């Protein structure tokens, strides 16, 4: 508790000694407060606080505690400067006069930097991870040590490349500290010269490896013209392999990042080639781990769960407190470096994610692009992979750096020729939709939490534009106008444009709701309202897709209308019952079935009734769907409409509707349609499993009765990320 020392007992009297003013010569005037502080120290008890008259407990939220190492960045902890650390021998060059120990310590430095880089990628500060290395901070000191110099320089260059890429993609707003350099020495270096030097160091070690392997196993002598890496012939091959796999990984990882940004020409294939090599070198690092751990001169070892090196020995030349004073005026963050094993797992996943980007076919269809991004996000890629995903999709304000977004929209409308029309791409609505589409792709490249927040906000813009488009179309061409063969191009474009904008708006709304499951924002007793709202959104999305498909078919009729009437009807039917629409219909049935089961359990028993401890069900409805309601998605939807729709739900009624059996019927016919689309087939199998289990559980509940007190019903997301499985048990 903070105590205000303004009373008689706690009053601090500073009048006994007048303050001594000091003028430092820079225009500032300083007052000596030593006597005041001494008096306060003698009088204050534990938990007491000295503060001014304008101080409040609210201000204490952002107060800093002096001399607390977690809050006070100016506290004397460790070395004050890099030079002081160097003078104290914290980062010797060479690392040891014993060449064997020098090699081992060099490998430890490499491994700790490897762990520091992974820690940085996961959101820590560059200054307290990679740049906690004194060798990185003073690269010129490593010049007499070619191996260490090459590794530190390529690490430095890779950090620079990643900062540029993440900054250009602007995904760093998720973690602002990621790209902050705090005045660190991040100067560009000639890439070709750097890789040439790295190659020469690699070749030197390769010659030493070949030389030691060329000798008979009984004679561990080196070829006379090749100086060994260290003095122990028994360890020569192991140390050479350990250094080579680390240097090669760094080289090819840097090349991967540089080629993955250049998708023109052979950039994509070369990046894939380098990724394969990086993964092979990571595997070599894993295989070499036992050799490094088995060295007799290593005495102090950490456990594999916490060790930041393969050998288990602490690396020298690191001090995370060196850059504490150069950080922003905020409490220094305690950066816990992840283990070497976890770092290796992280880089394996990062490389696999980047390889998925290399396999992307640059599909020009927007629907396929959105599907690819959503599928990519299911693997939970980290910040760096998502930054390169965005750089792949959007370059210089164009899709893939090649197409303007008005051309993308024209292709979506199935009117590619209209993109050449100047009036089209200068149209106010087309310009707005192009900007919104580019923003949408950028949002989809962010993490799940940031993505959901931004999608909720951009929904307002999409909704406003789609409403304005529909009003403009109705005002100009009339609500009752039917599409015909002689319909004007302007009317055709306007109609398709507002139908597509509406469809896209509801797609964003569905994505917004689904992300709530990924982020675990919904509690089981809220599933009823969530599935009910999802069913309404899915129904609207399905309707918009079908309307746009029919409009596309109707407006492409040419001459010979009478002869083609039956053919046009067949196409309209195919559009309404297309595989994509049928799969979406399965989503509708799942949501309706789950919402009605939950409603029936609430109505007939005591299960899944909303607790009103802190807020009412109405308030939770508003909290979850406020952004959708603001955008009028859908119109005339409110808490009262939700309450009325579930008020009379009964288990027998849900059994009679048989939502889940209908899903099984649809999925059986869909398997052939998606035979060559593995992701869709996998989702169909998941939906089948959810439907089958829920149908069985529903029948059990119906037979035993929802009011049976021995019945224990739970909803688990075990077979699908969004659609729960009903689990029934008896106590």
UniProtKB/TrEMBL annotation:
<feature type="domain" description="NAA35-like TPR repeats">
    <location>
        <begin position="357"/>
        <end position="726"/>
    </location>
</feature>
<keyword id="KW-0963">Cytoplasm</keyword>
<dbReference type="InterPro" id="IPR057983">
    <property type="entry name" value="NAA35-like_N"/>
</dbReference>
<protein>
    <recommendedName>
        <fullName>N-alpha-acetyltransferase 35, NatC auxiliary subunit</fullName>
    </recommendedName>
</protein>
<dbReference type="Pfam" id="PF04112">
    <property type="entry name" value="Mak10"/>
</dbReference>
<dbReference type="GO" id="GO:0031417">
    <property type="term" value="C:NatC complex"/>
</dbReference>
<dbReference type="InterPro" id="IPR057982">
    <property type="entry name" value="TPR_NAA35"/>
</dbReference>
<dbReference type="Pfam" id="PF25789">
    <property type="entry name" value="TPR_NAA35"/>
</dbReference>
<feature type="domain" description="NAA35-like N-terminal">
    <location>
        <begin position="46"/>
        <end position="144"/>
    </location>
</feature>
<dbReference type="InterPro" id="IPR007244">
    <property type="entry name" value="Naa35_N"/>
</dbReference>
<comment type="similarity">
    <text>Belongs to the MAK10 family.</text>
</comment>
């Amino acid at each position: 508790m903070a105590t205000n020392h303004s009373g008689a007992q706690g009053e601090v009297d500073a009048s006994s000694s007048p303050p001594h003013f000091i003028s430092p010569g820079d225009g500032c005037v300083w007052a000596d407060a030593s006597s005041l502080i001494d008096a306060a120290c003698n009088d204050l008890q534990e938990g007491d606080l000295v503060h001014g008259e304008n101080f409040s407990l609210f201000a204490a939220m952002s107060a800093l505690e002096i001399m607390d190492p977690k809050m006070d960045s100016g506290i004397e902890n460790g070395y004050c400067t890099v030079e002081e650390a160097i003078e104290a021998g914290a980062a010797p060059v060479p690392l040891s006069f014993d060449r064997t120990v020098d090699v081992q310590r060099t490998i430890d430095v490499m491994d700790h930097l490897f762990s520091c880089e992974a820690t940085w990628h996961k959101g820590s500060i560059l200054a307290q991870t990679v740049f906690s290395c004194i060798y990185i901070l003073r690269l010129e000191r490593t010049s007499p040590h070619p191996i260490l110099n090459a590794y530190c320089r390529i690490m430095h260059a890779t950090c620079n490349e990643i900062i540029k890429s993440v900054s250009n993609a602007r995904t760093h707003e998720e973690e602002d500290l990621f790209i902050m350099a705090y005045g660190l020495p991040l100067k560009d270096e000639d890439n070709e010269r750097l890789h040439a030097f790295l190659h020469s160091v690699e070749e030197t070690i390769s010659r030493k490896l070949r030389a030691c392997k060329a000798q008979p196993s009984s004679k561990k002598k080196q070829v006379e013209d090749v100086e060994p890496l260290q003095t122990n012939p028994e360890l020569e091959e192991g140390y050479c392999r350990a250094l080579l796999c680390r240097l090669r990984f760094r080289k090819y990882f840097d090349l991967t990042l540089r080629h993955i940004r250049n998708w023109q020409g052979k950039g994509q294939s070369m990046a894939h080639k380098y990724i394969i090599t990086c993964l092979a070198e990571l595997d070599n690092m894993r295989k070499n781990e036992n050799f490094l751990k088995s060295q007799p001169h290593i005495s102090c070892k950490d456990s594999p769960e916490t060790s930041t090196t393969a050998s288990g020995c602490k690396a020298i030349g690191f001090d995370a407190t060196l850059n504490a004073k150069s950080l922003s005026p905020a409490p220094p963050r305690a950066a816990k470096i992840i283990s070497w094993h976890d770092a290796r797992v992280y880089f394996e996943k990062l490389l696999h994610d980047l390889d998925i980007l290399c396999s992307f076919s640059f599909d020009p269809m927007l629907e396929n692009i959105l599907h690819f991004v959503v599928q990519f996000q299911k693997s939970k890629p980290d910040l760096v992979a998502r930054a390169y995903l965005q750089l792949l999709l959007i370059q210089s304000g164009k899709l893939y750096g090649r197409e303007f977004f008005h051309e993308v929209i024209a292709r979506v409308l199935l009117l590619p020729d209209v993109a050449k029309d100047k009036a089209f791409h200068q149209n106010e609505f087309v310009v707005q939709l192009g900007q919104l589409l580019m923003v949408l792709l950028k949002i989809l490249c962010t993490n799940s939490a940031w993505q959901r927040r931004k999608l909720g906000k951009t929904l307002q813009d999409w909704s406003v534009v789609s409403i304005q488009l529909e009003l403009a179309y109705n005002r100009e061409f009339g609500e009752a106008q039917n599409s015909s063969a002689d319909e004007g191009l302007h009317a055709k474009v306007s109609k398709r444009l507002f139908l597509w904008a509406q469809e896209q708006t509801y797609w964003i709304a569905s994505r917004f709701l689904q992300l709530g499951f990924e982020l675990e924002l919904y509690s089981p007793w809220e599933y009823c309202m969530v599935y009910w709202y999802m069913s309404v959104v899915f129904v609207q999305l399905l309707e918009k897709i079908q309307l746009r498909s029919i409009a596309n078919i109707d407006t492409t009729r040419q001459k010979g209308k009478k002869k083609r009437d039956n053919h046009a009807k067949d196409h309209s039917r195919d559009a309404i019952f297309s595989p994509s629409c049928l799969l979406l219909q399965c989503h509708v049935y799942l949501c309706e079935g789950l919402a009605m089961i939950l409603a029936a359990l609430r109505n007939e028993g005591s299960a899944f009734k909303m607790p009103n401890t802190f807020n009412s069900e109405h308030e939770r409805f508003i909290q979850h769907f406020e952004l959708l309601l603001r955008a009028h998605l859908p119109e005339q939807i409110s808490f009262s409409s939700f309450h009325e729709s579930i008020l009379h739900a009964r288990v027998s009624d849900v059994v009679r509707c048989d939502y889940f059996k209908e899903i099984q019927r649809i999925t059986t016919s869909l398997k052939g349609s998606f035979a060559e689309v593995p992701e869709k087939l996998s989702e169909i199998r998941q939906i089948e499993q959810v439907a089958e289990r829920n149908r069985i559980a529903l029948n059990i509940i119906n037979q035993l009765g929802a009011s049976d007190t021995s019945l224990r019903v739970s909803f688990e997301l075990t077979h699908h990320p969004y659609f729960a499985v009903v689990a029934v048990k008896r106590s």
